[in-house]
Amino acid sequence: MKALTRCHWAGDDPEMMRYHDEQWGVPVHDDRMLFEMLTLEGAQAGLSWSTVLHKRDAYRKAFAGFAPEKVARMTARDRARLLKNEGIIRNRAKIESTVKSAKAFLAVQEEFGSFDAYLWAHVKGKPVQGKRRAMSDVPARTPLAEALSRDLKKRGFGFVGPTIIYAFLQAVGVVNDHLTTCFRYRELAC
């Protein structure tokens, strides 16, 4: 049986390969999952995705299953407790930002009906199809990510710089940046 050709960043870590094969680049329309991925991409800042991915279950427990309404109500005591949680990245700014972003997320839901509607309106509901042949062809940021980053910052979100937002857009399938040689590229192409 022939081995599958994947984007090389998946490596040989079974969890990274599973994430690549089953989730990365698949269009997401569930607000809770969008909040989760936005939070995790922000948590990744300065770290590897593998580090964050291996802490994902602990993040889900620590942040109430990424229910934004629950995260928005986290108190100073809750945030202090999270700083002691060895299962997550114990960075005060990232923890504070998650609570702040949950409040902004709820405001976007109120204004647009859902975060999904807000996000996907930026691409008229259809994923952007990258046609990248090599990892060196994949940009760290794009005009779309820069515009969305500016708007999210204006709305009160934290850890949403253009590089983080581009990684988020790739992760939730707003952009299909699987390499054209990857088996997932054709499966996700519209």
Describe the structure.
This protein is mainly alpha-helical. The protein has one domain (25-188): Orthogonal Bundle (Endonuclease III, domain 1). 54% of the residues lie in helices and 2% in strands. It contains 11 helices and 2 strands, in the order H-H-H-H-H-H-H-H-E-H-H-E-H. The protein starts with 13 loop residues before the first helix and ends with a helix. The relative contact order is 0.17.
Strand order of the largest sheet: 1-2
Mean pLDDT: 96
> Termini separation (Å)?
28 Å
Q: Considering the protein shown, what is the CATH homologous superfamily?
A: Hypothetical protein, domain 2
Radius of gyration, Cα only, in angstroms? 16 Å
Q: Just name the CATH architecture.
A: Orthogonal Bundle
What is the helix content?
40-55%
What top-tier CATH class fits best? Mainly Alpha
According to CATH, the fold-level topology is Endonuclease III, domain 1
Secondary structure: number of strands: 2
